[in-house]
Specification:
single chain, alpha+beta, paralog of FGE (formylglycine-generating enzyme), four-stranded antiparallel beta sheet, four-stranded mixed beta sheet, disordered N terminus, transmembrane, SUMF_sf, Sulfatase-modifying factor enzyme-like domain-containing protein, Sulfatase_Mod_Factor_Kinase, membrane
Length: about 375
Amino acid sequence: MHRSAHPTRKPAPARARALRAAIAVGFALGLASLALLVVRLASAPSVPLTLSAGAITGALPRRLRFEWRLVRDRHWQIASSPVASRDATDQIEGNRGVCPTGMVEVSGLMKLDPAPKAQGDLRTIDEMQRTTCKHWISRDYPERCAEFDRERWLLMSRDLDTRPMHFCMDRYEYPNQKGVYPVILVSFYEAAELCAEEGKRLCDEAEWTFACEGEEARPYPYGYVRDPEACVVDQPWKPYIETALRPRGGPAAMAEMDRLWQGKPSGAQPRCRSPFGVHDMTGNIDEWTRSVREGERPSILKGGYWGPVRTRCRPSTRSHDENHMFYQQGFRCCADHDAARAAPAERVVTGDPAAAPLPRELR
């Protein structure tokens, strides 16, 4: 009988066969996962490093949730396009009055803090109003009230002195366009400069407060019951990395703001509207205003931001100087009621917002 030159191979033990099968399956799964990753990377949008108002260089630490653009090499804004022109919004809202395009006429009698009854008496409407809270969400600073007693407040405040107010205020946060995200990381001085470029001025805190609360001095722009669905409020607080925001025009700052951001475009919350028709006055972003008190720094923040803070009309933050800037701070502009004139022509952003020309106020 003919014998093979090679010895007959013994059947592999069952354990060895199982091991080889597992290796083969693992290899196949690895190839499939790699192919899926390649497909996803190929279809995912890239993070823009060249932005419409400035160039950002350097590697970003992670993929961003939003497309950001740098405004004047120092402020930030999420790329977005207006959903309507200011003229069209004026027609829909019907509250422009004698004011320039895109602004709201605010007129009426503002309730004033009570006059001191004795030396050291520093009562304010904010302090009086807190005594009418029917249900507290939290009494720890910054306190939040779920509902104020309207009847009790109207009775308590009926004899307060009043002052006539008449002025114009931007309907939305700067750049004052419905559907556009607000510009942030702006100092008090920079906000005043940007308003002046439009022939306007930064609102003072009394104007801002009255436009928010109306003649009743409501605690919230929409009434007496805190509504977390009306304005962008009560979002969870996220710890921030302060060093990541410096330099403020760098990629690390953009990535940190992208991680922290929980705001929305202007006008996205239709019920977040004051008695005069000014939008987004509480929540979303803090807004710079000018102090009306003598002998203190002029830089006052009003309205709160998207986090779990007071976000009422009367409270203010008075602890930051004029050079302070942060990831949730912006502003809006005011003007005298007799300063009505044609607003600067708008340039509508179309196509890729990161490559298209910016509106005049963002150039």
